[in-house]
Amino acid sequence: MAGISIGTARHTSLIKACLGREMKIMEKEGLKIRLRECSSGKYTFFSCQVLPDGQKSGEELERILRCRMARVLSDLILNHWQGLLLKDMIRENYYYFDEEEKRSILRYAKNRLGGGGRSSCAARYPALRQKIMGKLLDFLSHHNQLVVEGFIRFRLKEYVEVLEEAVERAVDDFLLEKEYREFIRLLRYFVEIQEPRVNLVHLLREGSGAFRLYDESRRPIRLDCFEGLLYNLSAEELNYDDVLISVLITLAPRQITVHRLAHDKSTLVQTVRQVFGERVRECLDCPLCRGE
């Protein structure tokens, strides 16, 4: 009788469900299956057995079971266990973040790993799935018992390192985003407390790709008129987009009309929309849009 025992100290319901689904598929294919559950200390083991059917040899049944268990376990690790591993890493190494912040970091980590789409991780990374399956098949060819946590920790070290790096980068992404949100909040505060100096400013991306500001008479606004904004900034530190934002905040216009930029995803346009909110209007077709 061919048999493999899969053990875990955690998430028993998850493994039981995954194994149960695979066993039902095997039964539909004509194989006689037995799935048993037992406990040993802190571990729960699921014994998966293929009963002799009088047609296939014991060696062939063992090979079939190894392949099916390797497949279901590789999918389980990539599609389900990966999220649990990321949560554990964040909880253990970044315990000083609150729960909402940890959830944000988890989202960033999943995006780093390409987990933002609807397709499964195993489907997106067939090479990674094959590599994990290969390690599982190699292990199961010499052992008939596997503990999921131990296998991941000791046999999938490279995979764990990839997850750890994703979490580290996710924390950086989260902190940068948090800093940006605070920056936007501060800019919005400056705009709200200032008296508007002009009624209208036009924002336009010219043919060269550079953004330009125009007054309500559609005359270019010269940035050198705001030389105080550039004080003590070297050429390396000077960022033209930052200067544009600084000019807009200084002018605090009652309305900003952005031209031909309805679907523009640039940082500058997004920042203008976030800082000035309802003061921003869209224009898609006017003499300024057409360059007339």
Q: Count of DSSP E strands?
A: 8
Work out the helicity level: 40-55%
Euclidean distance between termini CA atoms: 84 Å
Counting helices, strands and paired strands, the structural category is: alpha/beta
Task: Report the biggest beta sheet as strand number plus sense, adding barrel if it closes.
Answer: 4 strands, mixed
Order of helices and strands: EHEEHHHHEHHEEHEHE
How is this structure best described in words?
The chain has helices at residues 12-28, 58-93, 99-112, 121-124, 126-140, 148-155, 157-193, 240-251, 267-276; strands at 2-8, 32-40, 43-51, 145-147, 200-205, 211-215, 255-259, 280-283. It contains nine helices and eight strands. It folds into two domains: 2-94 and 117-158, no CATH class; 195-283, no CATH class. It is elongated and about 90 Å long. It has 292 residues and is α/β, with parallel strands linked by helices.
Descriptors for this entry?
2 domains; four-stranded mixed sheet; elongated; 292 residues; 16% strand; 9 helices; alpha/beta
Compose a concise summary of this entry:
The chain is α/β, with parallel strands linked by helices and 292 residues long. The chain has helices at residues 12-28, 58-93, 99-112, 121-124, 126-140, 148-155, 157-193, 240-251, 267-276; strands at 2-8, 32-40, 43-51, 145-147, 200-205, 211-215, 255-259, 280-283. The protein has 2 domains: 2-94 and 117-158, no CATH class; 195-283, no CATH class.
